[in-house]
Amino acid sequence: MTILDGNVVTVAMPAIQSDLGFSGSGLAWVVNAYLIPFGGLLLLSGRLGDLVGRRRMFTTGLAVFTAASVLCGVATGPGTLVLARALQGVGGAMTSAVVLGMLVALFPEPREQARAIAVFSAVGAAGGALGTFLGGALTQAAGWHWIFLVNLPIGVAAWVAAVRILAPEKGVGLGRGADWTGAALVTAALMLTVYTIVGTGDRSPGATLTLAGLAVALYAAFLVRQTRAARPLLRLRLFRSRPLSGANAVQILMIAGMYGFQYIGALYLQRVLGYGALLTGTAFLPAPVAIGALMLGLSARTIARFGPYRVLLLGLALVTTGMALLSRAPVHGTYAADVLPAMLLLAAGFAAAMPAVTGLAMAGVREEDAGLASGLFNTTQVVGGSLGLAVLTTLAASRTERLTGTGAPFVTATADGYRLAFAVATGIAAAALLLTATALRPGAASSTPSTDARPVHDAHSPS
């Protein structure tokens, strides 16, 4: 639900603009208002989950997200919708940040943990992939309001289930790591990073560089603070874990390419092949079906047999191949020949890679840091997706504008812009493959977090 709401509005944007009177530039804030607090608060929410209890953070986030969804659904003006979307982002961050930490604590045995992560990854991938379809179907059948109102029964059911099923747990206490100065610095830095990325196409290069420089300065101030704080928000020793650092870096690249496929692929179907909103959403359905089937049916067993490193290599190789096929993007292409084969390769690759990289990122994380590591992993997802979307859409738009300025037909120029974007996405996926082969190779020199706490594998399940 929380992942789906990041992109469910994409197809409904024209209807929202017409109904509520958004300006062309203001319409982008229907998406940005959700992404900025979502990406900015994940790290803080993850750490707070360790301090006050992850179940408490999870259920509170669900309540906030569900209430905000209702406010979105009944919005009668642009300001109300943007504010409600921002509140959705807050609730989404609170909920998403602690999920992985809860999973690795509930399932400490490696084989069970791999299965749980595969289910988690499948649900997340399905939410992202189904967003386009559900957005088009609900908008066309019942109106754009229902892309938000449908969250009410889902959110209530999830909240009730969480309260009844998840055992209460005590966090380590706010006194054990409540570095509010550090929290303010890193939250401001992350929000500014997402804001800078998602608005790249709407401002001058100089303004973008200025904002990026300010974000870097905030990160530097945060790191200095963490080295001096008596109870730091983020224990920097966490990054001495090669699997955690390497897996998060690989994820940024992988998600950057996959987000580009989802967004630019939908535009290619509509603007080049002439598909409508509902048909475009339907065309994407094979991806979540394949991802769900492979993750639930094969992923955990494959990882248990061959190890996450080999499975991640295979998955990224398939993603790279799928992106390379899409870089053809012909003007007179067909779905069966030019889209579906690449989509299935991407789905198979993502189904293999995502659970593997998730398991690597959480391997060996201490129980007291599980929420923080979960928040960090989700943060790199948001940053990677936002960065990939900004870079690839900017490249595509620039190439299209340059070609139309020389007299090229609009559809031809648009297809050429998308070809460039997919070619760059191929390079990004190949970079993720190379990084995996070098940074995550078993036996490479590494250092791990200090042994002042038990690994998650040895923690007792709260249940």
Automatic annotation (TrEMBL):
InterPro entries: MFS (IPR011701), MFS_dom (IPR020846), MFS_trans_sf (IPR036259). Residues 454-463 have a biased composition (Basic and acidic residues). It comes from the Bacteria. Residues 443-463 are annotated as: Disordered. Keywords: Antibiotic resistance, Cell membrane, Membrane, Transmembrane, Transmembrane helix, Transport. It is a multi-pass membrane protein. The chain crosses the membrane at residues 27-45, 57-76, 82-105, 117-138, 144-166, 178-198, 204-224, 245-269, 275-297, 309-327, 339-363, 375-397, 417-440. Residues 1-444 form the Major facilitator superfamily (MFS) profile domain. It is found in: Cell membrane. This is MFS transporter.
